[in-house]
Amino acid sequence: MTLPTASAPLDVSAVRLFELITSSWVAAAVGAAAELGVADAMSREPSPLAEIASRVGADAQALHRLLRACADLDLVRESPERCFALTDLGEALREDSAASMRGYARWLGSPTERSTMAHLADAVRVGGPVFESVHGVLVWEYMRRHPEVAALFDQGMSDISAQLTRSLTEDYDFGSSGLLVDVGGGRGRLLSLVLSANPHLRGVLYDRPEVIAGAEPALCQGELSERCRVEGGDFLDAVPAGGDTYLLASVIHNWNDADAAKILTHCRRAMLPHGRILLAEVVMPQGTEPARTARFMDLSMLVHCGGEQRTPSRSAELFERAGLRLNRIVPGRGVSVVEGVLA
Prior knowledge:
Oligomer: single chain
Strand content: 5-15%
CATH topology of the largest domain: Rossmann fold
Strand order of the largest sheet: 6-5-4-7-8-10-9
CATH superfamily of the largest domain: Vaccinia Virus protein VP39
Structural class: alpha/beta
CATH architecture of the largest domain: 3-Layer(aba) Sandwich
């Protein structure tokens, strides 16, 4: 075997592949910083390493190794004498930031999530989810048995609602809607944004009882509470009746066709005759154009629950199974709105 000489040029493909292979290390570092609450223990002004370590309960030397890696990611800035300050990007890891993604970073960095995605190859081999084979039960049953994991997941989904899905408040016109039922709406972060942007609109937040127990205070006792009610239940069994608009934000992609059609059928039966069903989803392109978010999110759905990021034609097929028809797709900056009406 011939070994490469020291003077041999680096292979560009090998270097690029190395970067891709080790990208999981990057995600792990961001997740660790989020889990430790590093950003919450810092500010824009430089703080000594020892103080930050004391605030988060970490070993100072090990924390230094994490923070200097985060500095390369532009999350923090290192100054002389081992002092660190937050950057604009790092601010989004703070719990109290308007742009906070800390909950989502914690969820993606959690042992449950990382151990599941480690079995992606198995999911590709068998052609379906592997969560049950990894953890012993199906994903939603696992969440019920492990409330601390479910709480972490719900917080991550709240971040997605607040930062990515919120674009629909401007990209979609709710002017003709009267009663919006947010099916699987989590803690109601998105619903509170939609109601705030549409003063004429009334809302219903619908999710599992243990989820709505942590609903946004504004929906339960704040200024929006007079226009909103919170209701617990299981959308695989039924959904609240009487709405003219049913919103399922990042919900249907979690389910296979049979279960997704069942959920949509419940919505069709519950809505008013002139009603509409809105799927706020990252839509998979019909063609081969780049769509990194959609394609990698689709792999997550494969591994966890057998759902998928559907193309427009797949969405049309799904609506048809539920007695609906695809009316239009409203493109958005975060997610698109796939609108269905009675067939």
